[in-house]
Write a structure and sequence with these properties.
This protein is an alpha/beta fold. It is about 35% helix and about 25% strand. The protein contains 7 helices and 10 strands. The chain has helices at about 15-25, 40-55, 100-105, 115-125, 145-155, 165-175, 200-220, and strands at about 10-15, 30-35, 60-70, 80-85, 90, 100, 110, 130-140, 160-165, 180-190. Strand 5 (about 90) and strand 6 (about 100) form a beta hairpin. Helix 1 (about 15-25) packs across helix 7, helix 2 runs parallel beside helix 6 and helix 4 (about 115-125) crosses helix 7 (about 200-220).
Length: about 220
């Protein structure tokens, strides 16, 4: 049973291949718009803001593929963010990375996803037989490609299970408009030294399509 027949959903995704997979999953659903966010948090924030100015959406979701931390989010599985975190917004120091929060500028790099919607989606996806887990998802402007950076991120954000490039930008725009936000990611590759042979794009897009179908059914 749907939660609210009047709910209007905005799904932001970065590239055309992700959009196609999501549309395959949701089918002809007038209450859901799938909009290209572009790549990176700045483009995502701009495009989400533009979309939110055109219609009065009830929920904003950032969906797409992502890298998963080894032993936390396996390739081909799904991740739902309980917290969306800008992983590289801050300052370097000899003692280590200083987050924007710690710098004391009155801004935060952490945005919580809507807990009620998160749990509703998590339960429904599991019931649909999709391997899914909850955890922090990092937003980075540069994709991680070394063991050193991977370790630094894991040490700094031990609850992080995945990284992508748009979530924080989408979430910041949603927060500005007072809209609940979700980030849902299908894992296409392990985070670490860049290795194209380890990427499993077809599996990731298949999972994204299956997840989109469930999301459309449970959130409308």
């Amino acid at each position: 049973m749907s939660m609210n027949n009047e709910r209007r959903i905005l799904i932001m995704t970065s590239v055309a291949a992700e959009k196609e997979a999501i549309l395959e999953g949701i089918g002809q659903t007038p209450s859901i718009d799938v909009v290209l966010a572009g790549v990176g948090p700045i483009s995502a924030g701009i495009q989400t803001t533009k979309a939110l100015l055109t219609k009065d959406y009830d929920v904003v979701i950032n969906m797409g593929i992502a890298g998963g931390f080894k032993d936390k989010a396996a390739v081909g599985t799904l991740v739902i963010a309980d917290e969306i975190i800008s992983g590289d917004l801050g300052a370097e120091s000899p003692e280590g990375f200083i987050t924007l929060d710690e710098l004391g500028f009155g801004a935060s790099t952490r945005i919580k996803a809507d807990s009620e919607l998160v749990m509703h989606c998590l339960t429904s996806l599991k019931l649909a037989g999709i391997s899914v887990q909850l955890g922090h998802v990092l937003t980075l402007s540069s994709v991680t490609g070394t063991s050193e950076t991977t370790k630094n991120l894991q040490d700094r954000e031990p609850d992080a299970v995945a990284e992508a490039m748009e979530g924080y930008g989408v979430a910041l725009a949603a927060q500005e408009f007072g809209k609940p936000v979700l980030e849902i990611r299908s894992i296409s590759n392990p985070i670490g030294p860049r290795d194209r042979s380890a990427w499993r794009m077809k599996e990731a897009f298949d999972t994204l399509e299956r997840a989109s179908k469930v999301i459309a059914e449970v959130l409308l």
